[in-house]
Amino acid sequence: MTEVPVIHGMGSAVKRKEDVRFIQGRDTYVDDISLPGMVYLDFVRSPYAHARIRSISTERAKGAPGVVAVITGKDLQPLGLDWIPTLSGDKMMVLPTEKVVFQMQEVVGVVAESRYAAADAVKLVEVDYEPLPVVTDPKKALEEGSPIVREDKRTNHVFHWEAGDREATDRLFEQADVVVGQDMYYQRIHVSYMEPCGCVAYYDSVKGTPTIWMTTQAPHVVRTVASLITKIPENKIRIISPDIGGGFGGKVYVYPGSIVAAVASIVTGRPVKWVNDRSDDHPSTAFARDFHMRAELAAKRDGTLLAFRVKAVSDHGAFFGDANPSKFPFGLFSICTGSYDLKAAFVEVDGAYTNKPQGGIAYRCSFRVTEAVYAIERLVDIMAHRLGIDPAELRLKNFIPPEKFPYRSVMGWVYDSGNYAGALRKAMEKIGYEELRREQEEKRKRGELMGIGISSFTEIVGAGPSHTFDILGIKMFGSAEIRIHPTGKVIARFGTRSQGQGHETTYAQIIAEELGIPIEDITVEEGDTDTAPYGLGTYASRSTPTAGAAAAVASRKIREKAKKIAAHLLEAREEDVVWERGRFYVKGAPAKYKTIQEVAFAAYTNHPPGMEAGLEAVHYYDPPNMTFPFGSYICVVDIDRGTGEAKVRRFVAVDDCGNIINPLIVDGQIHGGLTMGFGTAFMEEIGYDQDGNIYGANFMDYTIPTAVETPKWETDKTVTPSPHHPLGAKGVGESATVGSPAAFVNAVVDALWPLGVTHIDMPLYPWKIRRLLEEKGYALDK
Amino acid sequence: MFVIPDRFSYTVAHSVEEAVELLHTLEDSKVLAGGQSLIPFMKLGYASPKSLVDINRIPNLDYLDDSGESLKIGALTRISRLCDSELVAKDYPLIHDAALQIADPLVRNLGTFGGNVCHADMGDDLPAVCLAMNAEMVASGPSGQRVLAAKDFFVDRFTTLLASDELLTEVRIPKNRRGCGGAYLKLERRVGDYAIVGVAAQLEVDGDGVCRSVGIGLTSASTKPIKASEAESWLVGKSLSDEVLDKASTLAMNTSNPLSDIRGPAEYKKAMVKVLTHRALKLAYKRARGGL
Amino acid sequence: MTALIYPADAKVRLELTVNGERRVGEAEPRMLLVHFIREVLGLTGTHVGCDTSNCGACTVVLNGRAVKSCTVFAVQANGGSLLTVEGLARKGRLHPIQEGFWEKHGLQCGYCTPGMMMAAYDLLQKSPNPTEEEIRRGISGNLCRCTGYVKIVEAIEYAAQKLRSDPSWRSGGD
Fold first, then answer.
1. Which residues in B lie closer than 8 A to residue C52 (C-beta atoms)?
2. Which H or E run contains B25?
3. Which of B237, B233, B240 minimizes the C-alpha distance to B286?
4. So what's the ipTM on this one?
5. Which end of chain A is more exposed for a tag (fewer CB within 10 A), N or C?
6. Inter-chain CB proximity A29 and C139 less than 8 Å
7. CATH 3.30.390.50 region(s) of chain B?
8. In Å, what is the CA distance from C158 to each residue of A411, A671, C101, C105, C165?
9. Other CB atoms within 10 A of residue A272 CB
């Protein structure tokens, strides 16, 4: 036997293939693209949250140096592009013709020879507004007599959605020994990818082909929708998603900038670049959360949890644009029974329009799973404190036991696999839980405030099975197309789009594992609709569960054919040929073998008679079920009784995402998600005053964590493979953002519980904690 | 739309005299020093000067000189130099504390002592330091040089005593003596942000620990940088017991008149003036007595 | 009085050393250095992530110190020396900082990476053997939304160690 090459398959912590260009500045983000004759688009934006447009005067701007076009809503109207459909069956204003509906909304597009000339000319456009009454609180928006945001809808009510069994749940609440309830607000936050949204649009008028390079997580969907709206044949439209500087859900959407840039390119015959500045981007792109809920949990006195119910109002801004699967207007919130074996649950949500940009994006979360996990994990903690049972003990008592998997929840989901107690016990051991509780006890006696918070989350990701999941009717499969060249090198293309998740490496590792070809020999491409197989893109932790599975299945198809070729080369019967990673040998004679590379060469030069030449496969993977990653997080905080600051002393995260493809990448995903969860819990919030003025519109006002305040994360894992995924993997991109906020809040509330504090809404600003300390007579002045 | 500043004419001044003359002659001109407050302001449209006078190439305005009666800090001295200076770290811990908490290392590489002081935002850190240290500000104008006391210098938010054609060239800090100690404490939403509240305290104590002199400057505690004068007068001549510090920090709090904003409600900020004053005085005292 | 006043719409001719090479270009006085680097010099490895001098994606080394190139006018850099991410590697050899980021998974989407590396470059010049706390403070002007910073810290520790043991990188990178 010759030496087996190092291929870096499943489980290898190999460094990423894509990094070569990023660390040398040879990446290509949208703003790096420069085409001959390119012009720049900038926007006049609304100073008002709600106002009728009396008139728009563009004359001065049109006459300004370097200006080549000025585009208003009236210019888009004849094209049918003043409004476009959203992913939720609503529609979204591109540029207004009648009124503006949120502050900083795009009003007029100005195109000029340089970005400086465009910015100058923006200031010359005169818009006469008549301010209208504003509504920014979704609960008020649903009241009688509220200002109506959408005159075409005549109401601010977007939808009413229910899941679960109301009667069974109510019955259990009546019978329960203990019921706890809490009003909670999950604040509005922004994903804050480092690269703001933008595009370069070029319409080739000779060929009739629009090409748009854009910051999108789902280029194929954009192409299909663009074709349906404009009637331009889909084969003529090309959407290219180049390197993406973070997406986190915020780049699933198509924003007015891309539409206006495309129109401007048709009008001017030149390539048009639009790139948001940060202060444009934060107030006008989609937001996450903004969710008011009343959650209640019922239990027996011994701590057996019985039932859970939630009544909530969600704020969708001026347009209902959530990128939800069409059967789930409020996403997968019904995963809210979490890790617990409950008898019944019921949730109802009303969506409201307000004078804010569209909200409700799945911010690093599989469609509202974050809100669901927050609700149940907060309430379980409150219940534990109310019953005087340790929060870890209460969880361990009520977890779905490992032997019950696959487990059908009362909400109808079939959890694939899990070992919740295993993850929690590991986290407790790693952090020294018992010792910490003892320390807390002693500190309390000395008047020091220390808290320990747990979150034992279960996610639902990998949308999804075609019987249940589609967006605008398009099924949510994953796709892979793999071609082996004669020399045994590979190109593989996918319908997903990495925004930093490392697909070029993980997909190569999957193919390497399945075909025994080293990852260096495998090129992975995504994002170009002209070359990649159709796919719904990357969000909701779906890439590994769907496209990763497709890569495995397509590789196996290739291996099937390769085996036939190998049998031909080895002059053996196919059933006597054995696969061992990277080679085929004859049963009983391992020295007689053909490598996958030799087989690949033969596929083009010496394939069996009657067989098609070539070695390639395409697979569209329809997952049989969702995957259910889980984990347990434990956070320790110390509270300064003077300033109200809560300092995270330690944070242990034990994640279980099934089988791991690249541990380095998984660690990175968890670190990043925890940091986002930390930001959400302690410092991030987009707020509005009553007049609809935004605060938190840029990085000066909207604070995201730096390296200094970010805790030093301690991560560990358990491995419970998914039984239905070809690789046993589950997806991990979002676990930490989803699971961690409750751990932080639980820790701070745990510290303050003896003072009579049951809840604090995020962000846990020091002033909020200080105010509570003052109310309870516990604040210090030094 | 936001990243692009309005147009301006640009001149490099090669001497203080030249800078002053340019400021005097040019219409609506502004001094460009480190630019770390001015340029963001111009990008966001808060400032649109018609002309900028770049003073970065004026020689000999970047220095720390303690050879005479006071520590002389050249107006163009970069904040990072204060952070890296052993002299500052050892003898002027208040300045060192504050410098290390201004924005971030990259901004500090360009940002200057003079710029931070002249921007005179309520949230800038060095004005409070100058107030606490009873600094003197040396300015050059068309009619020559004048020396201004820090306590008079900060007129209002973004407004100092400097005329539009005057250039701050130097800040003089009373020289460190035995028994002196200072500290700057800053409460931030995240590192490098403008202060929720900041307190600068500088003390001189005698061998018995009795306060001989004291200066307290407050950041973000009003619409402009302010001095906690009542607390200062009350402390002089007293031993710094916990009760004395309590009273002093209450007086400082009463001096403050902060605004409610995204960094917190006014009542919280007031309370924090008290908490931080207490802690800053305590730390300053420890340092004055030869502790950390 | 000899000062040359450039009118607001002047095309100022700038000459500077960029990554060791002499480069010339024109900029009106208000042009930000980052736009000059990206659009005039064509070096797009330096990115723009915000407009308030918070994110540090545009960090470059100007005259030996890391600065935010969105908060400097291009005209200010005239005659100066500039090091950008494109100039970090030498003769096809990755700089230890680049190596560290690659080895330790110090990047995900890559957008903050060039700025982060240039900040690290400055930090390691000043402080060749930094503690974890010093590293965290040293990159506090650079926001990353992907990594949670843990692996960035490890990357810089890796680079520091490598730089200490390999003196050939010692004398500047530009």
1. 40, 43-44
2. helix B16-25
3. B240
4. 0.97
5. N
6. no
7. 180-287
8. 49, 19, 8, 11, 11
9. 29
Every domain of chain C with CATH number 3.10.20.30 lies at 12-87
**For the whole model, what pTM was predicted?**
0.97
- B57: buried, middle or exposed (CB in 10 Å: 19+, 13-18, 0-12)? middle
Interface test with B, best of C5, C34, C62 (most B CBs within 10 A): C5
Answer whether CATH 3.30.390.50 is correct for domain B180-287: yes
Query: Which amino acid is it at A782?
Result: K
> pLDDT of A668-716, one tens digit each?
999 999 999 999 999 999 999 999 999 989 999 999 999 999 999 999 9
Report DSSP state, residue A548.
Answer: I
CB nearest to A767's CB, from B193, B245, B264: B264
Q: What secondary structure does DSSP assign to C21-86, as a single string?
A: EEEEEEE-TT-BHHHIIIIIS--TTS----SSS-S-TTEEEETTEEEEGGGSBGGGGTT-EEE-GG
B275 contacts A703? CB cut-off 8 A: no
Distance of CA A662 to the CA centre of its chain: 20
Residue to mutate among A16, A20, A21, A23, with most C CBs inside 10 A, is A23
The CATH class for the domain spanning C96-168 reads mainly alpha
CATH, domain range B9-54: 3.30.43.10
Cα–Cα nearest to A18, from C153, C47, C101: C101
Cα distance between residue C151 and residue A239, in whole Å:
33
Q: Compute chain A's Rg from CA coordinates.
A: 28
C134–A contact, CB cutoff 8 A: no
| Residues of chain A under the 70 pLDDT cut | 1-4
Give B-chain residues touching A774 at CB under 8 angstroms. Answer: 271
User: Closest-CA residue in chain B for A771?
Assistant: B268
Interface test with C, best of B11, B23, B27, B104 (most C CBs within 10 A): B104
Between CA B249 and CA A607 the distance in angstroms is: 88
pLDDT higher than 90, residue C169: no
Sequence ranges of the domains in chain A: 19-26+478-621, 33-132+195-245+251-284, 288-463+625-775
**In the predicted model, what is the mean pLDDT of residues C57-83?**
98
CATH code of the domain occupying A288-463+625-775: 3.30.365.10
Chains A, B: CB contacts within 8 A come to: 81
Residue of A nearest to C133 (CA): A708
- The residues of A annotated as belonging to the active site are 217, 364-365, 734
What pLDDT does residue A673 have?
A: 97
Q: Are the C-beta atoms of residues A21 and A236 closer than 8 Å to each other?
A: no
CATH topology of domain C12-87: Ubiquitin-like (UB roll) (3.10.20)
Q: Where are the alpha helices (DSSP H) in A19-92?
A: 19-22, 59-62, 73-76
Interatomic CA distance for residues B71 and B135, integer angstroms: 10
Q: Do A502 and C49 touch (CB under 8 A)?
A: no
Answer yes or no: do A643 and B187 touch at CB < 8 A.
Answer: yes
What's A19-26+478-621's CATH class?
alpha beta
The CATH number assigned to the domain with range A33-132+195-245+251-284 reads 3.90.1170.50
Sort out which chain A residues have CB atoms less than 8 A from B6's CB and list them.
Answer: 120
DSSP A272-329: EEEE--HHHHHHHS--EEEEEEEEEEEE-TTS-EEEEEEEEEEE-TTS------TT-T
Q: Considering only CB atoms, which chain A residues are within 8 Å of B276?
A: 643
Q: What is the pLDDT of residue C147?
A: 98
- The DSSP H or E segment spanning C14 is strand C12-18
What's residue B70's pLDDT?
96
**B53: which strand partners?**
B11, B31
Interface of C with A in 139-168 (CB under 8 A): 139-153
